[in-house]
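This protein record is not my work; I was only asked to verify it. Take the sequence as given and treat only the tokens as open to question. I have pasted the whole thing underneath without changing anything:
***
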Amino acid sequence: MSDNFTPPPADPQDSSTEPGGADWLGEMPEPAPDRGNALPEILVSPGCLPETATQAESALLRANAPIFQRGGALVRPATFTVRASGGRETQAIGLLQLTVTAMIDRMARAAIWQRPSKSKKEDPIIDPPGEVARIILSRAGEWRFLNLAGVITAPCLRRDGSLLVEPGYD
């Protein structure tokens, strides 16, 4: 990356103003999930936090959420506007560490969250619990997310001499 790359500071308490673009490679975030689609359902029952966190991680993996592990943290790619020569601005790719709020957002996109109904009718839909997000983030060394060594923005040669030109995880 360029020497001009400086990620904006992030408030560790709240990422609702998280910098760096909204989604993978600068795309806009998906709309709220259509509750009629094939998202997995996660039932949030008291006393089951570890199991619920494991279900949430599985849902994130199935959804191909752009979450990776790097250096003992969970990160996501993001685009930044940086200064270039001649007073120009350009786009650069970097990594942002996932905060609790960002993890809750990703969990909400990856599954339908419900709590058990007291009336035995349909289980009401809820937002993903923050405690589940904190548990996932705390499981360094146990994650099943792909490891990420770095981010490149130009073609490069692999060790075997082949050219890497396709976007995505390599």
Observations:
- Helices lie at 49-62, 100-110, 130-138.
- Residues 107 and 128 are 7 Å apart (CA to CA).
